[in-house]
Amino acid sequence: MTYTVLLAVDGSMPSLVATKKAVEHAREKNGELVIMYVSEQTPLVNIERIAEDLALDRRCPIDFVTFAVDYASKSGIPARVIYLSGPVAGEIVRASEEISADLIIMGSTNPKGLDGLMLGDVAEAVLKTATCSVWMIKPNPEELTEILELVRVIAHPKKVPVLAVEPNGRLFRMAIGLLTIYLLGYGAFTLGGTYFRDIMSARLLGMNVAIVFGMVIIIGAIVIALFYSWYAGRFEQGTEV
Amino acid sequence: MAYEFQPLAFGIFCLITISTLAISLWAARQVRTASHFYAAGGNVKWFVNGVAFAGDYLSAASFLGIAGMIAFFGFDGFMYSIGFLAGWIIALLIIAEPLRRIGKYTFGDALMSKFKDKRVRLMAAISALVVSIFYLIPQMVGAGSIVQPLIGLPYEVGVIMVGIIVIMIVATAGMVSTTYVQFIKGFLLLIAAFALTIGVLMAVGMGPVEFITHFIENPAVTLPQGGTVSGSAFMSPGMYYKNPLDFASLAIALILGTAALPHILIRYFTVPSPADARKSTVIAIITIGIFYILTLFLGLGANYFLTTDPTNQNLAAPLLAEVLGGELFFAFIASIAFATILGTVAGLIIASAGAIAHDIYTEVLGNKPDEARSLKISKMTAVAVGVIAIALGILAKGQNVAFLVGLAFAIAASANIPALICTLFWKRTSARAIIWSILTGLVVSIGLIAISPTVMGKAAIFPLNNPGIVSIPLGFAVVIGLSLMGKEEEATATDV
Lengths: 241, 496
Prior knowledge:
The complex is a heterodimer of chains A (241) and B (496).
Chain A: E1 4-8, H1 13-29, E2 32-39, H2 46-55, H3 64-74, E3 79-85, H4 88-98, E4 103-107, H5 113-119, H6 122-129, E5 133-137, H7 141-153, H8 169-195, H9 197-200, E6 203-204, E7 207-208, H10 209-240
Parallel strand pairs in A: 1-2, 1-4, 2-3, 4-5
Antiparallel strand pairs in A: 6-7
Chain B: H1 7-33, H2 44-57, H3 60-73, H4 75-102, H5 107-112, H6 118-151, H7 155-172, H8 178-204, H9 208-217, E1 221-222, E2 228-229, H10 231-234, H11 244-257, H12 262-265, H13 274-304, H14 316-364, H15 371-395, H16 401-425, H17 431-450, H18 453-456, H19 468-485, H20 487-494
Antiparallel strand pairs in B: 1-2
Helix pairs in contact in B: 1-8, 1-14, 2-8, 2-13, 3-4, 3-6, 3-13, 3-14, 3-16, 4-11, 4-13, 4-16, 6-7, 6-14, 6-15, 6-16, 6-17, 7-14, 7-15, 8-13, 8-14, 11-16, 11-19, 13-14, 14-15, 16-17, 16-19, 17-19
């Protein structure tokens, strides 16, 4: 059986050093390398992302997965990539079991203080639950300089995923249609509250027109949202597969 | 009304506030270090984000302000509920997906995808900052109001307290994961609204429709501010907005304001795809819609039991809780209101800090994108914005928070909506037109508020409380007019 090394990367400095070590180790053992990146589930706004990058020492804004792939191929190591999303530590351990990895290699950033409290240490969590050996990389200054050098040689700027720019025509027409319906309702309601206040105070269904109309506008919004969601979802299934 | 320190209430209040923060921390860590999620796998992202949208959006205005407004002015207060939700339909149908397609981090980014003029970005950042500050004022007023009955401290102390807590959280802790705070807050608010509604209906022993009918048929509804009015008038438009055009102006500002709020807009850039942006919005609409239906019962309940402080409309909901369930329930509701304010304030401060650090510092001033510096700048911005908000919050003492938020909506809609909609859907829009429309929207809406009855009282030059009906169309007129006038210039500007 081939000796399999699972390299979990996250773009931090220790993780870049781990990349180098993993490639070298796989070459020594004549094994194969599985590179894995787990994207986090937390929606982060701009500032939060910056704070996290700093806390985790992601000081090289490079495409670290491609960096790992290129370095492996330069060293003649067979490598493949797994992208997953979910609880980072859990996914790493699960993947290591699925591919029956002999060793997990990853960098340990171990953020301190409040950052540590908020982010936790993924490497530590992996170590606790892993069913194979884990090699945690805590780089020394020389190793850091070395890796910065290597990054300069095999540099890939971070890629921003390109999203489809053109909206879907049919979906957009549906959106405009629904919006028109809703705006007509809201407009009628506003006109009523502005110029036809006696109509708004007329009794209706045990309540009055104003309250019933208002409730209809609120519930109507929920119904339109659900309908639009259903329509768009049906459409996506048709095109994505 | 004189308030005394209530130790039990204060204890529960501390407990709830601290556990909200602790749970958010725990959730943020779980994402990285858990071995598996207890909730359903891959769809978490947009669901969490959707409820977080609701949490971010449902501020002190929605909870404290609307309930108070309904208790004092009946239907005109409910109008806020209707309009606040209506804005989300615009966000869902025409803003969410296109915005996610073109933007990266901020509102400025989205505009810059079409124009290469740095002044566009500068205006977008200024607008985000101004709107955030105006939106912060009511949150501060809400905080000051809550602290009075809870701890027995003066209003000003409450405002300063919230300001300092939030500045501390944002400036020291690296701002990680407000999403989870908003998520928990969104759920807590729904629970609070349901609990109060059920409490009211059980205490009066009527069904929901019966309760409304009771009000409409009541020949003399007692008003907290003194006097009585017929139930039919109380439950119809016109109690607060005596000038009919003011009602229309508010309606326009509310429906267009939501999609123009900087702290809501930046949430759209946190999800990976336009489809996620859409799904999050749908979840938000359902959560927010249910909440707003319930506000009617909170407000009417507060009026029914007359659990109001005539000098402070914002306390209607917490004081209602005290009558229904005693000190414990009061503390529970007050704590949720406080957590709500903390969450919204944090969201707003982060939005303005992001605008300064990303748009102005890095992009407009052309500094190298240095993350450590950016973070430092954004923390400094957070402190500065927080201090400004504290000062303005103290000045705005005694105002209804929903009313104040209505003004913030008008400013946001006037400045951002014409620019945003034209950028997204009209190819002829020019950079110059965008710059001037944002500037016009900001200046005119704020100027009109300054000469409105809210600020000048009886001597007001502008008759309406809400400027939306004038300033929003004006913003559109400027962007369309200038774009049509400067055709040639525009062709070279966008053809890059």
